[in-house]
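Structure request: Glucose-1-phosphate adenylyltransferase, Benzoatithermus flavus.
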Amino acid sequence: MPQPGSYGNLSRNTLAFVLAGGRGSRLKELTDRRAKPAVYFGGKTRIIDFALSNAINSGIRRIGVATQYKAHSLIRHLQRGWNFLRPERNESFDILPASQRVSETQWYEGTADAVYQNIDIIESYGVEYIIVLAGDHVYKMDYEFMLRDHCEAAADVTIGCLEVPRLEATGFGVMQVDEQDRVVSFLEKPADPPGIPGRPEMALASMGIYVFKTELLFDQLRRDAADPNSSHDFGKDIIPYLVRHGKALAHRFPKSCVKSKAEHEAYWRDVGTVDAYWEANMDLTRVVPDLDLYDKDWPIWTYSELTPPAKFVHDDKGRRGMAVSSLVSGGCIVSGGELHGTLLFTGVHVHSWTRLEQCVVLPEVDIGRHARLTKVVIDRGVKIPEGLVVGEDPELDARRFRRTASGVCLITQAMLDKLAA
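Returned structure:
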């Protein structure tokens, strides 16, 4: 883990504003009933817990979360798991749904508009800095280092960024920088991304993390809100304007990435597709995972249900409750079934003579006897019928379920009900 210097604790004078209103349509049916930040991840957590935990672990004690799309599941999770911040300790945690506060007909029209509509609430905090965070990425980061870069460079905006292969950067906002990492141009999803000075094969991609001084941000949001031609988005409008008319600084993720002794590379994932979501969960089943969730120095906070321990029963030939290279959460019962490279969320029941391989199984799923499942993601509360086989016949799988090009099958209860009809 990087060690802070002596610049002072900027985090205590900062508000973390988390943008958590997006659907995440590329996750398909996983976001039919919940926003992307509320999607389950890693056995116990939700995706949004990573940005929120980073803020808490960085020393930030004022947090606002803007919600919009199908927010009930997300709001319930935030109320249950993030209600420990206390105003009497100069802390606050506010959930900010799109509530037509500016206009009776206007919801959040863009990421910048989500902050603009809450300016009066943010002003009441009296903070000097605002860090704007995306609530839908998986990573560990100490934001204090980014705040210090921002102050020491006297920047108008500091943008968190990743180094990615240049030809893979077409889906990101991409920064062109000079030798001092000052941003000279910001391009949203360019067809031909610019390279990094000295490393032309790599590009700097935006992480959707921005640091501003509060008053400067308010001025920019008011200017943008008055522009009828603006889409009121940080990546499309606010950031390009400040690159042209102010000083924008690129902050490279490895400078503030938090790593335990077991982690070798800076880990950041946008789990925005079914394949990426499955792969990131599978990362956790490795002997030495790329993302260390066992790091007590940087815990991932969440709402933890009260559950009994996981239970494995039966020890007969062909009917043995066992798990290899797998994560099994509390409340699970593995009754005479086998797990290989599989992740079970809370309260899953695996019945006898089943075999699960490379599966991501969300909470409260019941898997019937003799099922054989390979490379699947199963939505919450699904009842897998006895004898179901998935992952052995690609054409059959594609007719019955949501199958990706890499062979991952997403299974929901509605898909199974359609088969039974």
